[in-house]
Amino acid sequence: xxxxxxxxxxxxxxxxxxxxxxxxxxxxxxxxxxxxxxxxxxxxxxxxxxxxxxxxxxxxxxxxxxxxxxxxxxxxxxxxxxxxxxxxxxxxxxxxxxxxxxxxxxxxxxxxxxxxxxxxxxxxxxxxxxxxxxxxxxxxxxxxxxxxxxxxxxxxxxxxxxxxxxxxxxxxxxxxxxxxxxxxxxxxxxxxxxxxxxxxxxxxxxxxxxxxxxxxxxxxxxxxxxxxxxxxxxxxxxxxxxxxx
Length: 245
Ligand code: 13P
Fold this sequence. Notes:
globular; 8-stranded parallel β-barrel
């Protein structure tokens, strides 16, 4: 059986309660398409969106979690709290966390452990910067991020990986077909050696739009898309969901 695409909406720090009808409309569209669809709204919207999406095929996820299960960590959110608010997935190691919040791979790995303890399915993001690509370091960077961000606890558990070249995020510059296929192939090979029984979706993220989604999703090995800007409106996200069929 070919793997179903996972089409994921990463809303980042966008969206107020007024955006709930967008989630409702996405759920309606998801019903008539083959891909798995998930929305990662800001944490403040999780309980409200959970109510709107219950009984629909659309799953909910958090955008990050703390590496501890609870305690004195002002301003943070635990994996169990995300789960309690209706999430079944969590994005970890997004480049906006790795670079904006200086999160090293080892911290991402601890967060993955916390997510698994709370029964959340992690989507771990990796990707090189433009400087690293220009310096010919892409393979080394991706391999290091895989090795140091994916803990042994993932053995036998469901998880996914998203390849998101940092220079393609929010820039309108999408990676070339060859760059995507090479990176996804590297990830697939590495994962099959490290976690032989696993069957993760390997997503691509970075300037996925209605105009390029069908093309990207047909590239060899691409198991879905993690979509930022174009996931915020039904007009743009609906054709991306349809492109996964
Ligand atoms: P854009 O789709 O806005 O480039 O963002 C991609 C991303 O960061 C998904 O996690």
